[in-house]
């Protein structure tokens, strides 16, 4: 039997895939699981205790995104939030005859595959291209909008390369043509300021497990007065917009995580930004044939995506994992597929570069010493992999 030695130290650099739970999140969730088991819809003490816990969490999540608690709908995560926003809103407006949907080509699959599903049912769809900065230009959106456009969905920060999109400007353009605007803020909430009013959007989705909360819970903010059809029908939970007994422990955990993320945001952003920049500069210096993908200026502070010439990203990922370093080749949902990154493809990179890039996403536990170790081990690993392959150098 093959035996692998356990690496001396494990370094987690995949926080855009998911983050570990904060101890205080676990403590609060455990208390709810043990003691506050009531159904929030029940009238008695136990029900009201659970309802109060959900209400508190709603206020905490609302605070993180500058919203009114009554406009926050709890979901099972970012994917469901994106689905409710797109399907629920466009189906509510089906009678208007507006049947054109617009999204950027670098959206998460939760948006892209939802548009594909609606396209199969007769909606027209347009995907906005991006240039090598990985940013959607307002001019591209302006050209795509028509009087039939019902909804535009452009993410706030991209999960693979971290670029921040000019959401406020894009939302204004959509509104000028009478279309709704949704943004997937799953990768920005908790990392940089997110304010629904400043962004001027109609709907915004977030997910708890990207900011040290539990998996399987998220929230969708829906501007007051906007009609959105439910995807799940049944009871009257969540103001009849999402039926089903609430995931009380998950929701409560999300609330705690939201409060902590809001409190630490500024200091964590500057700490992680400095660590990320050091990692990036160290790699570019120590490893020949490397380049950063996407705009280095408009990015969330924890993310860098680097291409390694004459390397297959999956091989590098595995080699790094054997050294104890966890990174990713792009979105966790498409890893293991060996598919080229749809984000890098949409940015116009050649076939090789769409498959030779690694995402490093930093988070709370990362230290200077960890970054030093990655910079120290990477050149040797890359050199070894390059010596094993005969892939010719490409631009
Ligand atoms: N949107 C973006 C940008 C993401 O990065 C993710 C998760 O990777 C999702 C949506 C899906 O969120 P969830 O895993 O909570 O369904």
Model description:
The chain is an alpha/beta fold and 395 residues long. It has 2 domains: 11-17 and 265-389, Aspartate Aminotransferase, domain 1 (Alpha-Beta Complex), CATH 3.90.1150.10; 23-260, 3-Layer(aba) Sandwich (Aspartate Aminotransferase, domain 2). It contains 12 helices and 12 strands. Strand 6, helix 7 (196-199) and strand 7 form a beta-alpha-beta unit. Helix 3 runs parallel beside helix 4 (109-120) and helix 10 packs across helix 12 (368-388). It is globular. The structure holds pyridoxal-5'-phosphate (PLP). Residues 77-79, 82, 108, 110, 155, 159, 184, 186-187, 207, 209, 218, 331-333 line the site of pyridoxal-5'-phosphate (PLP). Residues 77-79, 82, 108, 110, 155, 159, 184, 186-187, 207, 209, 218, 331-333 line the site of pyridoxal-5'-phosphate.
Strand order of the largest sheet: 2-8-7-6-5-3-4
In terms of DSSP E residues, the strand content is: 5-15%
The SS-based structural class is alpha/beta
CATH-defined fold name of the largest domain: Aspartate Aminotransferase, domain 2
Number of strands: 12
* End-to-end gap: 42 Å
Q: Which geometry do the CA atoms define?
A: globular
For the sheet with most strands, the description reads: 7 strands, mixed
- What's the total helix number? 12
Instruction: Please tell me the total number of domains.
Output: 2
Mean pLDDT metric:
94
The CATH class name of the largest domain reads Alpha Beta
Q: Give Rg in angstroms.
A: 22 Å
Helix content: 40-55%
What is the string of helix and strand elements?
EHHEHEHEHEHEHEEHHEEHEHEH
Which stretches are low in confidence, meaning pLDDT under 50 for 5 or more residues running?
Answer: none
CATH H-level name of the largest domain... which superfamily? Type I PLP-dependent aspartate aminotransferase-like (Major domain)
């Amino acid at each position: 039997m093959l035996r692998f030695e356990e690496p001396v130290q494990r370094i987690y650099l995949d926080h855009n895939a998911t983050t570990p739970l904060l101890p205080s999140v676990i403590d609060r969730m455990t208390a709810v699981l043990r003691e506050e088991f009531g159904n929030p819809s029940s009238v008695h003490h136990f029900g009201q205790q659970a309802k109060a816990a959900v209400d508190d969490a709603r206020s905490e999540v609302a605070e993180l995104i500058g919203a009114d608690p009554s406009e926050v709908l709890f979901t099972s995560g970012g994917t469901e939030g994106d689905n409710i926003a797109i399907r629920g809103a466009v189906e509510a407006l089906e009678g208007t005859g507006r049947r054109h949907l617009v999204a950027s080509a670098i959206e998460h699959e939760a948006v892209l595959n939802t548009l594909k599903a609606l396209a199969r049912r007769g909606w027209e769809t347009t995907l906005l291209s991006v240039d090598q900065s990985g940013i959607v230009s307002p001019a591209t959106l302006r050209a795509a909008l028509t009087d039939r456009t019902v909804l535009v969905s452009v993410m706030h920060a991209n999960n693979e390369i971290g670029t921040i999109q000019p959401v406020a400007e894009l939302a204004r353009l959509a509104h000028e043509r009478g279309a709704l605007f949704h943004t997937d803020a799953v990768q920005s909430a908790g990392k940089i300021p997110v304010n629904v009013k400043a962004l001027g959007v109609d709907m915004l989705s977030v997910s708890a497990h990207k900011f040290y909360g539990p998996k399987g819970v998220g929230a969708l903010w829906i501007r007051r007065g906007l009609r959105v059809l439910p995807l799940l029908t049944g009871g009257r939970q969540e103001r009849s917009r999402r039926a089903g007994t609430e995931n009380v422990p998950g929701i409560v955990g999300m609330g705690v995580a939201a409060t902590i993320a809001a409190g630490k945001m500024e200091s964590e952003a500057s700490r992680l930004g400095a660590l990320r920049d050091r990692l990036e500069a160290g790699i570019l210096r120590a490893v020949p044939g490397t380049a950063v993908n996407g705009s280095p200026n408009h990015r969330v502070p924890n993310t860098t995506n680097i291409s390694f010439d004459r390397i297959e990203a999956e091989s590098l990922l595995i080699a790094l994992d054997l050294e104890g370093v966890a990174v990713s080749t792009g979105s966790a949902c498409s890893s293991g597929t060996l598919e080229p990154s749809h984000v890098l493809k949409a940015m116009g990179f050649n076939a090789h570069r769409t498959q030779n890039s690694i995402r490093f996403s930093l988070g709370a536990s990362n230290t200077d010493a960890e970054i030093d170790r990655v910079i120290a081990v990477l050149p040797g690993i890359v050199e070894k992999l390059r010596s094993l392959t005969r892939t010719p150098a490409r631009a």
